[in-house]
Amino acid sequence: MAAKPTYEELEQRVKELEKAEFDRKKAVGVLGKSEPRIRKKLDGNRLPNGDPDVVTLDLATIIDIRAIQSMMDDFFNLTDIGIAILDLQGKVLVATGWQDICIQFHRTHPESCKNCMESDLELSNGVEPGTFRLYRCQNNMWDMATPITVGDKHVGNLYLGQFLFEEETPDLEVFRSQAQKYGFNEREYLAALERVPRWSRETVNIAMTFYTKLAHMISELIYSNIKIAQTLKERDKLLNSLRESEAFLKTLINAIPTPIFHKDRDGKYLWFNNAFETFFGETKERLIGKSVFDIHPPELAEIYHAQDTELFNSGGIQRYDSQMKNAQGELRDIIFNKAVYTNSQGIITGLIGAIIDITERKQVEEALHESEKKFSTLFQASPVYIAFTALDDGCFLDVNDAFTKITGFQRNEVLGRTPVEIGLWFDPKERAKFIKLVRQNGDFYEEEVRFRRKNGDPLLGIWSAEKIELGGKACLISVLIDDTERKKTQEALRQERDKLRAAISEIKTLSGLFPICSNCKKIRDDQGYWNQIEKYIGERSNAEFSHGICPECAKKLYPDFDLYNDDGELI
């Protein structure tokens, strides 16, 4: 019979183990060694309740078998109680203090070994975590089992067994029949039976209570270890994502052409993008840790510092116009856009800012303002009527001074009203014709129109108009030259010309009795003077004269010259 500890000795050893945390510390260390293997096995999946998915993990993967074996050997040396840890397939993972009757006999024959496995798997099934079950195996040894779980998943069992109760007497005939059935050496088999420990029920209860607690602790530690491994895996994944995100954001910010900077609560520069370095012509290494007073002129640094202080005190977002010198020493017009950022406790720990260079924009704005000023001066100083109207309804949007002088309408009388409403058109139907031209061609030039002044007098003009867009709205710019006086003058000249033509027509018509000399052929005028006939007729008609000599007079006056041929033509 094997030597066995007394009840008092066993109880004292168990109490010593429970008081000290040797077992827990060692178990934690042993289970901790399995964490790298668990992390490799975890695939990142979780159960619907968010717990780690251990369905695909077996007990051999979760624990460090060699380390736990060493720990169980130490426990056996303290308690003389053997235990074993088996997975759900009946595979022995850890075993210590096993009896010869099992190692040398029951586990060596296929049938008796099958009895052991069936007992381990079937008789231990359904045991609640934190409890144990006492049962007699099919080979007639007493065993106890308590489950090892991971979360809600049953992954294995811790066994205490291969013993007999001290108050019972084994039936040797049963064991002899088992020896004959399985071909064991009867003498050696019964000798092994004799070495099986005998325990009292109190000893068994105390020991199993302790090992149940140990199994429960192992279950919790395994589960915690898996969750830690899963958490670490997720942490690594998040860290990798964070690194990728940081790299992406850094690349993105460095690709932005706007200078961006980062300051701590003390106003020290912590980081810049590439555009900031380019703007100042300095590197991050030379600028990080500096304040505005270190890198900016004092008068500008005071402004920046005051604005930063106000932002830190008020929080939120800040935007203001200022100036800053660039790498070339040029004073640039800029806009600061800044915002504070906080830590997890909501405490302001720094600010982030962007610098927008608006120098060129301001120059363009100033040039535009100057251009608008010139246009306004030209618009108002122009001697011709200029008006802006909406194309759709014709409402006046603006008119110049010449408009008011020419039409007689004041500016406040026409703005927001249409030409038809104020009675500007002599014939309102004519407007539709011109608007149609604009819609078709976009403009028209030097068209004669008839308007009516405020006092009712006619306004005759030469009108040109072009379609433009103002504020996204189709409009019409009109230019009118007052042609009224020219038309009046032209009409007066026409009338005078007609009168003159009539007078001339009457004067140039020769009629009546003309006294003419029978010898020299001179004509006597109304004053009694005698004039050459050609002079008299020329002054009173449109006739013109040229002098020549007829053939008869030629012979008479110049008989020595042949001025004409036989056909009467001048030679």
Tell me what you see in this structure:
The protein has about 575 residues and is α+β, with helices and mostly antiparallel strands. The protein folds into four domains: about 5-230, no CATH class; about 255-360, 2-Layer Sandwich (Beta-Lactamase); about 380-485, Beta-Lactamase; about 510-570, no CATH class. The protein is built from 21 helices and 18 strands. Strands 1, 2, 3, 4, 5 and 6 form a six-stranded mixed beta sheet that branches. A five-stranded antiparallel beta sheet has the order 8-7-11-10-9, sandwiched between helices. Strands 13-12-16-15-14 form a five-stranded antiparallel beta sheet, with helices on both faces. The longest helix is centred in the middle third of the chain and has 55 residues, at about 200-255.
In short:
With 571 residues, the protein is of the alpha+beta class. It has helices at 7-19, 22-32, 35-41, 59-62, 65-79, 100-106, 110-123, 172-182, 186-194, 201-255, 274-280, 284-287, 292-295, 298-314, 359-381, 401-407, 411-414, 429-441, 484-507, 533-540, 551-557; strands at 83-87, 92-96, 133-136, 142-150, 153-165, 198-199, 260-264, 269-272, 317-325, 331-342, 348-357, 385-390, 396-399, 443-452, 458-470, 473-482, 523-524, 530-531. It has four domains: 7-232, no CATH class; 256-362, 2-Layer Sandwich (Beta-Lactamase), CATH 3.30.450; 382-486, Beta-Lactamase, CATH 3.30.450.20; 508-571, no CATH class.
